[in-house]
Amino acid sequence: MMKSKLLGSTLIIAGTTIGAGMLALPLASAGIGFSTSLMIMFALWAMMAFTALLMVEIHQYADKDATLHTLAKQILGRKGKWVATFAMLFLFYALCAAYIAGGGAQFTSRIGELTGLEVNGPTGTLIFTLIVAAVVTIGTGTVDRVNRLLFAGKMVAMVMVLSFLAPNVSQSYLLSMPLGQGLVIASIPVIFTSFGFHGSIPAIVNYLDGHTPSLRKAIVIGSAIPLIIYVFWQIVTLGVVSQPQLVENAGLSALIGTLSQTVHQSNLGNVIGIFADLALLTSFLGVSLGLFEFMGDTIRKKDGNMNRMVASLATFVPPLMFALFYPQGFIMALGYAAIALAVLAIFLPLMMVSRVRRQSKEGTYYQVMGGTPALAITGVVGILIVGAQLLITIGVLPSLG
Fold first, then answer.
1. How many whole angstroms separate alpha carbon 76 and alpha carbon 349?
2. Residue 105 to residue 9: CA distance in whole angstroms
3. Domains (ranges, CATH) in the chain?
4. How many of the other CB atoms lie within 10 Å of CB of 376?
5. Which of 49, 65, 108, 271 has the fewest CB atoms within 10 Å, counting from its CB?
6. With contact defined as beta carbons under 8 Å apart, do 330 and 99 qualify?
7. Residue 66 contacts residue 218 (beta carbons within 8 Å)
8. For residues 97 and 333, is the Cβ–Cβ distance under 8 A?
9. Quick check: helix, strand or coil at residue 178?
10. Residue-wise DSSP of 201-245
């Protein structure tokens, strides 16, 4: 049973990561070239895996069903709880809004292709959200089973896309240099968000009964799978389409259309469309599961049980409203999510792990390697990410997508 849960947890982490990140990476990397994006990806993956393991270390000091704001209150006090709560809500709602906006549009298009029925955008988005909400509300076990099926389909679609695109890779395209230093810094928040799965860690900890060795394996393997896939994806997207074309077609639908036209394969557009659907759906499942667990813990009944229907409404209604009013808000929502993700996945774990390490005896609990230098370097990178997004917001750095 534990091995089955370990596999499921690994795939939930991988599926949560390979979603918006897969689709946003070529858009964020268009102006900086393959080599530069590769270095940034490896550095940010290592940092995100490190901070995820810090979360595992922190969870040893609490119940296995503790959420982030429970941990923050226990370790950092009341102020820590409010910071964690705000960051978690901002991140989850921003990501869910991005997935509903992107996934709803894709789902609406897919209904028209498969059934011939004309469904307007808001209706398709609503149906898409209701389907995901039903799966998440039933429970983590259901998300696990559905995610395994979708993840397998996503891998098949991805292999087909790679096989179509790989023969058309041009070495000269891959050797393109950054168009400007500002674009390198501006790409960091979106690439950083592409490795975000930390919001689902509390649900995974609960699902694996707080078993530290299994959690470490799930996080390392689950986060490494997206990194490997991202590298191949960057090769076949940045290597098939010229840098000027990518910069000019800075949108999800435009990217899919450009790839299809460049390769001249009639079936490629459909395969990429299906892949994009599954990528958004698996990522949406993982993120909304984390938000659902968070909301359920926040609004528990007096008897301690979760009010699943109320938690579901609180999880899905706010991002649905955003997606209905801003249907093109995919990249915009991901950019702003980077600030909240930096607080959630970098600054809070650093603060909490520093506190618990001072209070615990060495050797009693599992500790992540690296010591104080690793914590300091991670903190500096976090400040850089937040600073980059703030500079984009005020117009000093160029916006992407």
1. 11
2. 28
3. 1-394 (1.20.1740.10)
4. 11
5. 65
6. no
7. no
8. yes
9. coil
10. HHHHHHHTTT-HHHHHHHHHHHHHHHHHHHHHHHHHHHTTS-HHH
